[in-house]
Amino acid sequence: MADSLATDQLLSIVLLRPGWEEEYDGTPEIESVACLGRIIWHEKLPDGRYNLRLQGLARIALVEEIAVDRHYRVARSELIGDIASDDLARLTELRRELAEAVLPRFAPEGPARQQLVDLFEGEMPLGHVCDVLSYALPLPLEIKQSLLAEARAELRAEMIVQAIRISASRADRKFPPEFSAN
Asked: What is the pLDDT of residues 71-100, one digit of tens each?
């Protein structure tokens, strides 16, 4: 954190690959696609750890890990640009499909639902909408990583719709769940 804060304030977040538990103290394998973000707020805690807020900037492909004498890992990476179709009708249809899959899972009068309606009806590009949903929805980690690795916005939208439909077919429970009074 100190190195990042003293320089460009950029930080990459990457998942460890399954099986990392056996190699945690060594150098477990990492996924090949990560998130690049900028630290926009931080607070150093008395024990030396940090609270931070990271603003996502881009997807990156990790090309090569670079050996360094640090307590963190460094890699050479390349930006992965968002690929969106110029087929406006298809993009509109996918946005509608996303809304139809997501909105019924939220209380009709709740604030979360209204925020989602605003998201679906707003001007944000489909790829950004998918990224917000990928982050916010309770999707399995493997699906979230697949969404991160997919540069094509249309495919991310289709993957989210499919994941929600599968999830809905497997569970009768309400989402978001009722919270206990405790």
From this structure: 889 999 999 999 988 899 999 999 999 999
pTM (whole model) above 0.70? yes
Q: Per residue, what are the HEC states of 63-77? A: EEEECCCCCCCEEEE
Indicate the DSSP class of residue 28. Answer: -
Residue 41 main-chain phi, psi, to 5 deg:
-160, 140
CA 55, 63, 149, 15 dihedral sign is: negative
Peptide bond into 176 cis (omega under 30): yes
Q: Shortest CA distance to 11 belongs to which of 1, 24, 23, 21?
A: 1
Round to whole Å and give the CA distance between 45 and 109: 39
The first and second tokens of residue 6, run together, are: 């003293």
Residue type, 5: L
The set of residues, in sequence order, having a beta carbon less than 8 Å from that of 35 and lying 6+ positions away, is: 12, 13, 14, 56, 58, 59, 60, 148
pLDDT tens track for 102-113 = 999 888 888 999
CA distances for 31 relative to 15, 61, 160, 169, angstroms: 6, 9, 20, 29
- 6 HSE (CA, 13 A, CB side): 3
Average pLDDT over residues 143-165: 96
